[in-house]
Amino acid sequence: MKSALKGLSAKWLALYAVAYMVFLYAPVILLPMFAFNDATIISFPLTGFTTQWFDVLWQTESLHGAVRNSLVVGLSSAVLSTILGACAARAAARYRFPAKRGIMSFIMLPLVLPEIIVAVALLVLLMQLGMPLSLATVVLGHVLICTPFSIVILNSAFQGLDQSLEEASYDLGESRWGTFRRVVLPLVMPGVVSSLLITFTISLDEFIIAFFLTGTEVTLPVYIWSQLRFPGKLPSVMALGTILLALSVLLLILAEWFRRRAARKQGIEASATGGFA
Amino acid sequence: MASLSTKPIIDLAGVTKTFGSFQALKGINATIHESEFFSLLGPSGCGKTTLLRMIAGFETPTDGTIVIAGEDMAGVPANRRPTNMVFQSYAIFPHLCVAENVGYGLKTRKTPKAEIAREVEQALQMVDLGGLGSRAAHELSGGQRQRVALARALVMKPKVVLLDEPLSALDKQLRDQMQVELRQLQQRLGITFILVTHDQEEALTMSDRIAVMFDGRIAQLASPEELYRRPVDRRVASFIGVMNFLDARATGRMNGHLALDIPALGSIELSSAQVPEGLDLRNLETIGIRPEMLTILFEGSEQTEHVARGEVTGTAYYGDMTYYSVRLPGHAEDVTISMRNTAGRSIVPPGSEVPVGWGADSIVLFQ
Q1: What residues of chain A, 161 to 180, have a C-beta less than 8 Å from chain B?
Q2: Residue B39, domain member (yes or no)
Q3: Are A205 and A221 in contact (CB under 8 A)?
Q4: What digits encode the pLDDT tens for the residues B69-78?
Q5: Residue B250, strand partner residues
Q6: Across the interface, do A167 and B85 touch by the CB < 8 Å criterion?
Q7: Residue among A38, A9, A35 nearest A244 (CA)
Q8: Which of B189, B219, B239 is the last residue of a domain?
Q9: Nearest chain A Cα distance for residue B287, angstroms
Q10: How many CB atoms lie within 10 A of CB B125?
Q11: Do B156 and A168 touch (CB under 8 A)?
Q12: Phi, psi values for residue A196, rounded to 5°
């Protein structure tokens, strides 16, 4: 009786899991489906295979500008937030200071703060300061939300770093800078790469802050949103979305691969360092 | 053993270290000689590691001076000191191979590549790892990591090698083997080794001299033999080996002899050579005697100076030795007696009355 119940609940659980996955990913799968569909109207049944929507992308000048902007914003945000994240992670791992826990959770706050609140607050602040909106202000906003992610990733890299390795290096006559270059950097490098990839991905996909803080130059998500008003452009937006989707997944996989490699290099179980992606 | 020079290589004068309100070291004075195997022995928290890290340059003394090879080390950072350390965790650089690990320090000195390669191989051979230079760090066993850490320090040709509990991570058998090897290597190279350990057996077997530390102070600094035979106080006595403590009272002093009344053993006279200088006889309450200095007398055993009677309350068999717990009249705690197991001698069962032999010269008096 009991085992029968157990079998039943196992079946339901499996069903629930499948339903859950469909709910999560079905909309995402629709994207590439219609991107390759030979029709301007987004509806079933599919009519045929085409790559013409991708060709349209190549010929849209304004799109290229948006891609360039997004790349600039993404790279700048990734580099800045990774540097800030590395400093914070290093401090958390190595030094003891008063209210460390409080300060660390305070830095992590943007992770859970509603983005719209952050965006509005930043907009008000920038207005008060009289700063003109531009890609630079978008970068500032993105650094704010990317840094906590960077800290989470780099924390595991820095925590896993045995302090006696640095001492051994000094002891063998190496300078502080030399120790950083020859011991610390190589050991946290996979974490740094992973942080760069993830923060870049976050910045690339981010819409709300970019929408509020950008001036005349738009980033890719903002551009896509503006194109949604024209039904005829919908399929090419789908194509663009497909490319972005593939790129994001690729970057996240790369980032996780680097993070695991870092853990393995230091001889730590990858799962023990708190997997991120 | 080669005659040891008494030329000082390290001079510690009034070395004090305070962490917040905690005084880790309370004025350490010691001189460590050239080519000496010197151990800092003590329970955890006694300050021995802090002292070693100050010699290495990882901590700065709150007060006092550290002189290495005639040079005051105040303000000299770790990377410019003539010392190299073998860390407790070995601190093998995980991203470098064995040869790169060992050659790490030579590279900072801008030594030519060919010379680095030659010296690295030499150092590896010294620690029996010849030809393993291309191994990755994670492919090494615990014992091999220890050897790499040692080679990495030795290749720098330091004046002093500092070892922070280097054997504590190894299993018993490997530890015993490494103790012998480490000692032989040190004697062959003639470099000063300073070992930090909490294992008294390790300190006794390897060292020329040992500083026993408690609560941030050196309780006694002496050779292993001196430490074992003449521990200055009860704490040192019970930390090094096993010691039986018996109540005693000084009853008088006449023509070069000290009269002692030991309720558990009887009244005896000690020659004053056995009495430590500065001992206040009025404060004398306890004497010590090592388990092997007490013998259970069997039929035909050699006669001893004194004989007491006791009752066996328990035995522990160790193969080559048997440890007896014996109750002596007038003494609350059982004493421990160790007996070598010789052929044809059976173990005395608990409950037996036995004669316990001992000699006055094995009595230890504490300051």
Answers
A1: 162, 164-165, 167-175, 178
A2: yes
A3: yes
A4: 999 998 899 9
A5: B260
A6: yes
A7: A35
A8: B239
A9: 44
A10: 12
A11: no
A12: -60, -45
Regarding whether B324 and B220 lie in a shared domain, the answer is no
- Sequence-separated (6 or more) residues with CB below 8 Å from residue B277: none
Looking at the structure of chain B, the number of domains it has is: 2
The answer as to whether B151 is a domain residue is yes
Q: Give the phi and the psi of residue A40 in degrees, each rounded to 5.
A: -85, -20
Buried b (16+ CB within 10 A) or exposed e, A215-243: eebbbbbbbbeebeeeeebbbbbbbbbbe
Let me know if residue A193 belongs to a domain.
yes
A181 Cβ neighbours under 8 A, 6+ residues apart: none
> Would you call B129 helix, strand, or coil by DSSP?
coil
In chain B, which residue's Cα lies nearest the Cα of A171?
A: B79
Tens of pLDDT, residue by residue over B198-209, are 999 999 999 999
- For B58-95, the DSSP string reads SS--SEEEEEETTEE-TT--GGGSSEEEE-TT----TT
Question: What 3-state DSSP class applies to B179?
Answer: helix
Tell me which residue range forms the domain holding A169. 64-268
Question: For the domain that residue A262 is a member of, what is the CATH number?
Answer: 1.10.3720.10
Cis bond leading into B43, ω under 30°?
no
- The range of the structural domain enclosing residue B104 comes to 8-239
Asked if residue B249 and residue B192 are part of one domain, the reply reads no
Determine contact, residues B179/B202, Cβ cutoff 8 Å. Answer: yes
Question: What is the value of ipTM here, to two decimals?
Answer: 0.81
Token representation of residue B85: 């350390």
For chains A and B, CB pairs below 8 A equal 64
DSSP assigned state of A138: H
What is the residue type of A33?
M
CB contact under 8 A, A174 and B104: yes
Domain count, chain A: 1
Are B195 and B289 part of one and the same domain? no
* Chain B residue closest in CA terms to A163: B91
What is the tens place of the pLDDT at every residue in B287-333?
Answer: 899 999 999 888 777 778 888 889 999 999 988 899 999 998 878 78
Q: B234 and B252: one domain? A: no
Last residue of a domain, one of B218, B239, B260: B239
